[in-house]
Structures are given as structure tokens and as C-alpha cells.
Amino acid sequence: MDQRPRPGWRPCVRRWRVEARQPICYVRGTTTTLDVPPEIDLRLDRLAEQTGFAKSLFYPELMRMGIDELEDYFEAAAESERHRLGDGRAHSQAEVRHALGLDD
User: Fold this and answer.
1) pLDDT tens digit string along 30-65?
2) Which of 27, 57, 72, 81 sits a CA distance of 20 to 30 A from 17?
């Protein structure tokens, strides 16, 4: 069985055919070291125990779920800073209600 990697995939570091010195599988993505707060680590331990899944399977989903909120936060902070510097535009409540179709 030929297991050539597809573009963007890299060899699994932990799984090699010793005799052929070739990777057994390939994974996609990058490796990152995380400094996880103890309370989050404990919650992930409990979740892994309850579901029977390895804790490492939850990290990508946790990051995907959190990235939207993180992007929204920094976008709002940047807009707030632009407004503070006089570069942003403020909208009245009436303008917002009208734009959203909430006029009475």
C-alpha cells in the first residue's frame, strides 16, 4: 500500500515503519504547543473520561469554536479605537433600528 502524502500533509511523527523508515500515516495541519490553564485541562480530562475520546481530539474543536468570538472581540476593539481617535462613525439608535427594520 502506497501512502504518499497529499499536498499540505506531513508524516505522523510517532508512527514510523522501522524497517522501511517511512511514516505509516500522514496528518494535515501544524503542531502547536499550548499552555492550558489547569481549570481548562481538568474540564478536558473530565470530558475525555465521559466520552471515551482522547483529550487531544477536543483541542481543534475548542479552537474552532473560540476563534469566532476572538475575531469579533478584536474587531470591536479596533472599531472602538478608531472611534476614539475620531476615524470611526457613530450611529444613533434610530439609525440602527431603521437599518435593522425595527421601526415601530
Assistant:
1) 777 778 889 999 999 999 999 888 888 888 888 888
2) 57
Residue with cell 462613525: 89
The string of DSSP letters for 34-90 reads ----HHHHHHHHHHHHHH-S-GGGHHHHHHHHHHHHHHHHHHHHHHHHHHHTT-S--
Closest CA to 56 of 39, 32, 23, 25: 32
Strand partners, 23: 16
Please give the DSSP secondary-structure letter assigned to residue 95. H
The confidence band for 6, taking pLDDT boundaries of 50, 70 and 90, is: low
Question: Which set of grid coordinates corresponds to residue 8?
Answer: 499540505
* CA–CA distance, 13 with 56 (Å, rounded to integer): 15
**In the predicted structure, residue 10 carries a pLDDT above the cut 90:** no
Q: Which residues contact 82 (CB under 8 A, 6 or more apart)?
A: 88
